[in-house]
Amino acid sequence: MNKNELDPDSSPEAAFGARLRSLRETRGWTQEALGERTGYSSVHVSAVENGRKPPTLRFSRSTDSAFGITDTEDTFERQYREIRHGSFLEGFPQFVEYEARAAEIRLYEVGVVPGLLQTPEYATVLAQSHVKRGAITEDQAHERITLVAERQQALVRKPAPLISVVLDESCLRRPVGEPAVMDAQLARLIEFAELPNTVLQLAPFSMGACRPFDLPVTILTMADRALMSYAESAQRGHLERDGKFVLPVMANYHQLQAEACSQAESVVLISQLRKGSQ
User: Fold this and answer.
1) Containing domain of residue 176, as a range?
2) Are 45 and 53 in contact (CB under 8 A)?
3) Residue 239 sits in a domain of what CATH number?
4) At the N or C end, where does the chain have fewer CB atoms within 10 A?
5) Contact between 261 and 181 (Cβ < 8 Å)
6) Tens digits of per-residue pLDDT, 206-220?
7) Shared-domain flag, residues 77 and 112
């Protein structure tokens, strides 16, 4: 493929390559010059520009650094993640970027244990169930499982974010995989509750109409105290960054925490369920 044949609309990889070439030429750099700045060969740069080689996370970050756009909204890393997460709902890759930098994470989940708390085995069962239904491919399932592990790095990064989780009782009652998978997952929840930067609560069925949310929701507080919320429909995810819309969600979340079981009560209930799963 030569330069004139590169069609940025043909694929996400081609769009990445076309943009890379455009920025490089705008700076007046040769492929060799960009390679020197990123630690890659000119052959590698050419292959990415022409869409023959997909970009990697390391290459994308090195390119951002070379162009001085690491802390901007329109990075090559973001474009790379959009390529990689093509099987995810629209809006979710952008949410994951903010989640990885959030100072505080508050989430409410219904039906399944959320990704931040999943064991690899639990995540694998969920991903493979989508494969069996024909919703995603094996490669896409692997991407989802890998992303779960990457997102969980938020639990150990420095400084660690404050993470508050409220799980609907259905997350614990719904069996996923063999009993051993559920037992290990319930054990992981107890371990999560013991971390110094976390709070785990259960919203029991008995809350009834007192539950302010019918669907899962996540609220992020960034380092500059900016608030945003994320929620999903069946078709797409929506990241809301307008404070006037996020503040009522935050108020409802506080009400949810007030009505939910305490962490101590929640851990006791999880421990009792573990006995039943063994």
Assistant:
1) 92-277
2) no
3) 3.30.870
4) C
5) no
6) 999 889 998 999 999
7) no
Same domain, 145 and 22: no
Are residues 15 and 22 in contact, defined by beta-carbon separation less than 8 angstroms?
no
The more confidently predicted of residues 28 and 154 is 28
Q: Dig out the tokens for 223 from the structure.
A: 């380092």
Residue ending a domain, choose from 51, 84, 117 = 84
Q: Are 166 and 257 in contact (CB under 8 A)?
A: yes
The model's pLDDT over 91-139, given as tens digits with 9 standing for 90+, comes to 787 888 899 999 999 999 999 999 999 999 999 999 999 899 888 788 7
Residue 108 · residue 101 · CB < 8 Å:
no
Determine contact, residues 217/107, Cβ cutoff 8 Å.
yes
CA–CA separation, 151 vs 157, rounded Å?
A: 11
Q: Are residues 119 and 219 in the same domain?
A: yes
pLDDT of residue 119: 97
Domain identity same for 235 and 125: yes
Radius of gyration of the chain (CA): 22
For 192, residues 6+ apart whose C-beta sits below 8 A from its C-beta are 117, 155, 165, 198, 200
Residue 259 identity (one-letter amino acid): E
In whole angstroms, give the CA distance from residue 159 to residue 195. 14
Question: Contact at 8 Å (CB) between 13 and 21?
Answer: no
Dist CA 276 CA 278 (whole Å): 6
Same domain, 133 and 213: yes
Same domain, 105 and 60: no
